[in-house]
Amino acid sequence: MQTAFDEMNAAGASGGVTRAHYESYARWLADQPESLMRERREQAELIFRRVGITFAVYGDKDSGEGTERLIPFDLIPRVIPAAEWTSMQAGLAQRVTALNRFIHDVYHGQEILKAGLVPADEILNNAQFRKEMMGVDVPGGVYSHIAGVDIVRAGHADGSGHYYVLEDNLRVPSGVSYMLENRKMMMRLFPELFVNHRIAPVAHYPDLLLDTLRSVAPSGVADPTVVVMTPGMYNSAYFEHAFLAQQMGVELVEGQDLFVDGGFVYMRTTRGPKRVDVIYRRIDDDFLDPRVFRPDSQLGCAGLVEAYKAGKVTLSNAIGTGIADDKSIYPYVPKMIEFYLGEKPILQNVPTYVCREKDDLAYTLAHLPELVVKEVHGAGGYGMLVGPAATKAEIEAFRAQLVANPANYIAQPTLALSTCPTFVEKGIAPRHIDLRPFVLSGSSVRMVPGGLTRVALKEGSLVVNSSQGGGTKDTWVLED
């Protein structure tokens, strides 16, 4: 794999030159003693631990910290110039708009299936397809109100890097609390940087989120009551659920706090029942309502789906959105954009081989050592093969799985993900990164500048997921 595009430093005859949008920060960084940076990193870790910003890791045998782990925070920001963000923002809005149109179509006329652009069996036989949603209208036709779109930059040190969408997360995307806390931490540790740089703010995200949720309340509700619904404190993202409820000034509830009466949803309060109009749910479809999905669910609320289908309460995100963020559907998103919007995609997909198709499977089997192969229903960096980093035995074992069930996999070239200088134990070194902007869709499509930058802290690793030891950085979008 060739040398990756570096976000901060361009290759040059003299060994490298700082990119223009990083020049001011690079000068500042060069003046900072390493001892000061180490001190600041320890300070950040102490504060994060005190605040309780942790990520639960299940089945983690190697961690001495049990199931609760701090997500490592890196002190060196990822910087994006204004023009790049403007283009990316337009591409994100276009993509999420098309995906929402697709989900509506899947549960109504299924025009894209009739046109033959997406194979019908990929939808109708998909585990994420919810037949209960057929013909159900949702406010404004918006299904995914909160989307987290994973973007990578791939390219080489001597040329420009190009942004690609790696994955669409339309069900219950997480990580926005870390974006907000990373910014607060940087402002606390290095206030002078925010005096000397015009950095677009992100602190208003909870206000945008609440405004988005209120905008999709059932019709006729003038002053909607919004709640955040959590599976409970043992969920890996519980910190974020509590954080967002607190930041929005709304109640954090569990399924047992809710009940349905007369077709409406209520929450139990010390002052008696209070009607709930919008539920920002951080619970998967299967556990929402034991009468409709899993009867053994202790996390949901009996009767919730009936109230939802009757238009008495809004669920964000809608039931059934998972049909659009399944990896088997990802290859068709560019066609969706053209089909529903009549536009060319602004943001490109990573080239993808769909292993259910004979030619793509043959290519994948012949090139396993150089490809990344993913389970279509996998998440969190699990269930995948990174060919260049795998042993011959691992490749052959994966080959057998692939031959046995090709429809369960897609394959992609191993991208040279861009790197960003990162403060690691041995000092400052390049590490691979991605970016997860958060796109809010309600009466309009909005987002705060940037998103969550995740970083693979292990040298050479391309896996940025926090569940596998990845860290995070503050993301700066520079204002003109």
From TrEMBL:
Residue intervals of the Circularly permuted ATP-grasp type domain: 77-456
Top-level taxon: Bacteria
PANTHER family: BLR5612 PROTEIN, SLL1039 PROTEIN
Record-given protein name: Circularly permuted ATP-grasp type 2 domain-containing protein
Top-level taxonomy: Bacteria, Pseudomonadati, Pseudomonadota, Betaproteobacteria, Burkholderiales
